[in-house]
Amino acid sequence: MLLTDGLLLDYRRCARRAHLNFYEPLEKQPEKDFLTKLRQESAAHVKYVLENFYPDAQHPHSPEQDFITRARETEQLMEEGVEFISNGNLLFEDSSKGITLLGSPHLLIKVVGDSIWGDWSYISINIQLGRRPKPEYKLIAGYYAYLLSKVQQKLPDHAQIILRRNNHHRVNLSEWLPRMEKALLECLAVLSISQEPEVFISRQHCSLCHWYTHCYYVAQRQKHLSLVPGITPSRYKSLQSLGLSTLDSLAGASTSVLEPVFGTQVVHSLKLQAQSLLEKRAFIKSNYLHPLLLTAPWEFYFDIEAEPEMDLEYLLGVLLVNTKTKELKYYRLLAEDPQQEALIWMQFLKVIDQFPTAPIFHYSEYEPETLKKLAHRYKSPTRLLDALLNRCVDLHRLVTRTVIMPVESYSLKSLANWLGFFWRDPGMSGDQCVCWYDDWLKTRERSLLDSIVRYNEDDCMATFYLKQWLLDFLTDAK
Ligand code: SF4
């Protein structure tokens, strides 16, 4: 069995993904544009760091597929005592167990310390685009250290990660090597049997995964509890230990059995959520009516499209609603070039200032956080920002505080779809908009911008739709 650093990383994120990638029982879905973009940005970052900070690094020349020859070439360079080795291969074959471990650190650096070659040895450096040293980076650093200990017969005393802006992080191997060894054994055990690990749909791990369609189908067929909002992997484990693995069993479970494990509030929410999904109807959780939810003569609905890599807010979409006449007007405040962000910020302030007391509805914390960022960036007065923030109403917060809905996620799309609102371009997403905006900057293909604006307008409309429903629902319940 050949185990690579990529497979171990997959395992760390999801055991099932590692298994499916290893056995490939079905054809993978094509990679999403957003994931391709992330991968390309990450590769460009690695290239930038290597070329600018380690221009003298040497590297093996054989093609990547020929990993055995590449590993031999890497060892040859190490034996020669080369200072820096980029994109080398580390290989360890354990014939007694029938496993081969392969790792490809971005960089190996020569340091003082005896090895099989003399009074020098190597430590690994991994180059990542992230701002923080995530645990998964440290785990892989531990894996490279383990391989180095086999190849050079000397365990490095530390490993390094180079993060964004050339920030160096030192990995403590006395902590991460044992963790990696545990993960490695578990991963090998999972891969040694052909039975797929149980599915668990999690938005964080599954949304960009190329097995999503397959896993989602399996989860739906099994009516898996991971499709219930609020069921985290640890809560799922606890429910399993109580013998609860279906929606019906959760909805009907005794509160006195659940409360000692999860607490009163969580039990109330989970049971109501299961009931809502079973009966396909919404329930009141709390009949709190936010004062700004009550119909005002004019209302704004606000949604932003951003390019995170460029730290750019390129589309401030605002829907103005005259609640008496039901007239709607959508403002697309669009930076066709990144330099226009200041301009659209001024345009936004002007639009919003038409009705200085009208509430501004939005569906996440991102919008007020961005208002703060833009106000700071363009030196808008504090009192202006405070006034804006006081008018903001986060519908996501209000929905999750007050109602339980028969949905698998409390994303705007899930809720609006359940209420009967559908986006004009099905399958479109915020991530896709990021890719299309990048493409627009390169190609100047106007249809890309049109699609982004249409998506943003629909987001604003969906927020409006949801707000109307929430007000009616909470009012009826009074
Ligand atoms: S879709 Fe989710 S559960 Fe399935 S393999 Fe991917 S990450 Fe794992």
Fold blueprint:
Blueprint lengths: L1 E3 H9 L1 H9 L9 H21 L13 H14 L3 E3 L3 E5 L4 E5 L3 E9 L2 E10 L7 H17 L7 E4 L5 E4 L1 H19 L11 H4 L5 H10 L11 H9 L5 H6 L2 H8 L1 H16 L3 E2 L13 E10 L4 E11 L4 E8 L6 H12 L7 E3 L3 H12 L4 H10 E3 H8 E2 L7 H7 L11 H14 L2 H32 L1
Parallel strand pairs: 1-4, 6-7, 10-13, 13-14
Antiparallel strand pairs: 2-5, 3-4, 5-6, 7-8, 9-15, 10-11, 11-12
The structure holds iron/sulfur cluster.
The site of iron/sulfur cluster has 13 residues, from α2, α7 and α8.
Report on the structure:
This protein is α/β, with parallel strands linked by helices and 478 residues long. It folds into 3 domains: 190 residues, Lambda Exonuclease, Chain A (Alpha-Beta Complex); 58 residues, Orthogonal Bundle (DNA polymerase, domain 1); 187 residues, Nucleotidyltransferase, domain 5 (2-Layer Sandwich), CATH 3.30.420. The protein is globular and about 85 Å long. It is built from 19 helices and 15 strands. The relative contact order is 0.08. The longest helix is centred in the C-terminal third of the chain and has 32 residues. A 5-stranded mixed β-sheet has the order 2-5-6-7-8. Strands 12-11-10-13-14 form a 5-stranded mixed β-sheet, sandwiched between helices. Strands 1-4-3 form a 3-stranded mixed β-sheet, sandwiched between helices. It starts with a strand and ends with a helix. 50% of the residues lie in helices and 17% in strands. α17 crosses α19. A hairpin with a 2-residue loop joins β5 and β6. Bound molecules: iron/sulfur cluster (SF4). The site of iron/sulfur cluster has 13 residues, from α2, α7 and α8.
